[in-house]
Amino acid sequence: MQEVSFSAKLIGFLSGFSGVTAYAAILGVLLACGMGVPIPEDITLIAAGILAGLDKISLFGALVAGMVGVLAGDTFLFFLGRKLGRNAFNLPLLRRYFTPVRIAKAEEKILANSKFICFTARFLPGLRAPVYLTSGVMGVKPSTFFLLDGFAALISVPLWVVAGWYFAKNLDQALEFAKQAQVFIIIAVAILIIGYLLFKKAKRSRQNNPAA
Questions:
Q1: 111 pLDDT higher than 70
Q2: Residue 193 near residue 120 (C-beta atoms within 8 A)
Q3: Distance of alpha carbon 79 from alpha carbon 163, whole angstroms
Q4: DSSP string covering 43-60
Q5: Domains in the chain: how many in total?
Q6: CA distances from 33 to 15, 77, 196 (A)
Q7: Which tens digit of pLDDT belongs to each residue from 113-147?
């Protein structure tokens, strides 16, 4: 209930803005999300859609603000990691949110497959920011990062924004949709990961046994 209450407060806060101020608020909150501050990115995007549904901003503007906000935050963390290396983990602003456990999990997943995790991290709120920062630290190619992160954002951002726009007149339904959608997304990502691992295993098996 506490998470729902915070989500409702966040939507209520953002819904109080309109026009240019609303776009600035959306971008500001999404940038904070991207830098690891524990604010639910999906709820922020739903709030952007609600603003569009209430005619305080345009739906197209909400989509653009959502894309710019999430990609700007991701890009900031990625290049911060490339610039500072492991020293980035010790920055006062980040040290509180990037715990050793999260960093270790991010490193493990990136070492397993940098391309795959740069895509799936968009759908894993707890690991999203640590993965993006660690990707920069560990030297993932910028082209790889931008291509896969951008592709994932093209899926997630419209999903949440359009949902907010659709349920703009009913906050309870919007929050219920967010809750249910997150469960389905986690299941879908889990299936995707399992399928990918099975594919890699089968591929290695064929390489080790050419005659087969």
A1: no
A2: yes
A3: 31
A4: HHHHHHHHHHHTTSS-HH
A5: 1
A6: 18, 11, 28
A7: 666 777 888 887 777 888 888 888 888 888 888 89
CA pseudo-torsion sign 181, 104, 37, 154: negative
Nearest residue to 133 via CA among 168, 95, 173: 95
Residue 122 tokens, joined: 């968009």
Residue 19: which region, alpha, beta or left (left: phi > 0; alpha: psi -120 to 50)? left
Sorting pLDDT into bands at 50, 70 and 90, what band is 2? very low
User: For residue 55, how many other CB atoms are within 10 A of its CB?
Assistant: 10
Contact 177, 163 (CB under 8 A): yes
Separation CA 15–CA 60 (nearest Å): 17
Structural domain boundaries, residue 24: 2-208
In this predicted model, what pLDDT tens digit does every residue of 36-92 receive, in sequence order? 777 888 889 999 999 999 999 999 999 999 999 999 988 988 998 888 888 877 777
Other beta carbons less than 10 A from residue 40's beta carbon: 19
Calpha distance 181→177 (Å, rounded): 6
> 99 pLDDT band (50/70/90 cuts)?
confident
Separation CA 117–CA 144 (nearest Å) = 11
Q: Report the 10 Å Cβ neighbour count for 57.
A: 24
Residue of 138, 157, 165 lying closest to 73 (CA atoms): 157
